[in-house]
Amino acid sequence: MVTVAVDGNGADLGPTEVAAGAALAAARGVRVLLFADAREVGQVADGVELIDAPVSIAKAVDPAFAVRSTPEASIVQAAKAVADGRAQALVSGGSTGSALAAGLFNLKRAAGIHRPALALPIPRPNDRPVLILDVGANVSCRPEHLVQFAHMGSAFAQAVLGFDDPRVALLSNGEEPAKGTPELKEVHERLSGDAGVGLKFVGNIEGTQVMEDVADVVVMDGFVGNIALKLIEGVSGRTMVAVKAAAMRSWRAKLGGFLLAPSVQGLREEIDPERTGGAYMLGLRQIGVVAHGRFTRRGFARAIEVAVRGVEEDVIGKTRDALEQAGALRSAPSGNGESPSEHTATVSG
Predict the structure, then answer these.
(1) Alpha helices, H only, the chain
(2) How far is 260 from 154, CA to CA, in rounded Å?
(3) How far apart are the first and last CA of the chain?
(4) β-pairing, 117-124 with 127-133?
(5) What local confidence, expressed as pLDDT, does residue 251 receive?
(6) pTM here?
(7) Residue 36 resides in a domain
(8) Among 15, 134, 174, 308, which is most buried by a count of CB atoms within 10 Å?
(9) 141 and 104, same structural domain?
(10) Same domain flag for 122 and 253
């Protein structure tokens, strides 16, 4: 049985909602170590072990410093439980920055990995989700980072999302290989050559194509990725509000809205971000998932379940095999003193 360490602090609906999600996951055969304020959570379900950890660093301005200086914090204790072998995966319901810093300090980068990346499956109507990475762990990236992201994303899409031979694309300002920044042009050249071994690389795509059925994995740096993610979320949410408003403008619109209500509700559920479980910290030695702070218990349960699937499907090993086959692993430590504080997580939790 897989055990998942869950940080219960920092979620918008509080630790009781995270505990309820843990209970749902435990009912499906997962063992959960829940690190949260015991006074708020109270009794927990069978299969959930509550460790009293009332201190939260979810709102820390400097996540790396907070992780170093606050060992009693819930996210730090949860990450240490994974590092010590008491659990096999980490799930956080709080700040992405704190989760990433705790993961880097405790779970550590996998051998040969330049930078970890945050990968997020985005639901698409009437289609399977598209995995985008990086969505905020690294504001700037070198070409070798993006090459690794392509392989990590492809391996994850196969192992966890169940995609066969996923199509991998680069997000750029044009489909032509000559479009984009100098770094993107170099990445395109590498992935089109020896560095693309094992990948189904389909080249560049534009922003309008991310939600179309042209790629299953879309690679970008964390600065662009975070903006793209927030834009997609904003447009999606605003569109649903506009549809509801349009259905209330007249009696005829209300009648049409009544008839369409089941279909609209089905669409709402289809694009619900809780279905995918949150963002995944790829490139670490063990599985880490960051659930969105707005999630309900259903979303937290899904985050735990997908973390379990990542362990069972050996996504860490498959990612490494893919990188090794392509010759994309870093051959030696960079020796540049890089620390978690240099990985600027920008995704809101």
Answers:
(1) 15-27, 38-41, 63-69, 74-83, 96-102, 143-159, 182-192, 222-246, 251-270, 297-312, 315-326
(2) 37
(3) 28
(4) antiparallel
(5) 61
(6) 0.81
(7) yes
(8) 134
(9) no
(10) yes
